[in-house]
């Protein structure tokens, strides 16, 4: 049903456009007609072949990371603090980075202060380890 309405609308529009063009004094020109002549003895031209895909570039394997540097020489604690990274191979105290007794190392200054506060009664006994 929709097809017949649209065809009728096109025909009606085409019929109206000719008298309007003639009434306005403008000469109507028909649209150009494209004609294609094919010689049956010749084959139709074929599209060009597809371009070959480029060879994939060789992908180098990812670089092998260097083994971690084990720094246990004197001053390793100071160097660890300067780098901001705890060094588990270093036996020296490493300031705020050192995990203390939670990692099997010596107590940190905070742990020592907490123990002292418990002994002196400054910290409620419910919060102190016994």
Structure, explained:
Helix content is 32%, strand content 0%. It is mainly alpha-helical and 130 residues long. It has a domain at 97-130. The longest helix is centred in the N-terminal third of the chain and has 22 residues, at 2-23. The radius of gyration is 45 Å and the shape is elongated.
Q: Give the topology string: H per helix, E per strand.
A: HHH
Helical proportion? 25-40%
- Class based on secondary structure composition and strand pairing: mainly alpha
Range of strand content: under 5%
Mean pLDDT: 78
Q: Write down how many β-strands occur, each being a DSSP E stretch of 2 or more residues.
A: 0
- Low-confidence segments: none
| Count of individual helical segments | 3
Task: Report how far the terminal alpha carbons are from each other.
Answer: 92 Å
Quick overview of this protein structure:
The protein is an all-alpha fold and 130 residues long. The protein has 3 helices and no strands.
How is the topology of this model organized?
Elements: H1 2-23, H2 76-83, H3 109-120
What brief labels describe this structure?
single chain, 130 residues, mainly alpha
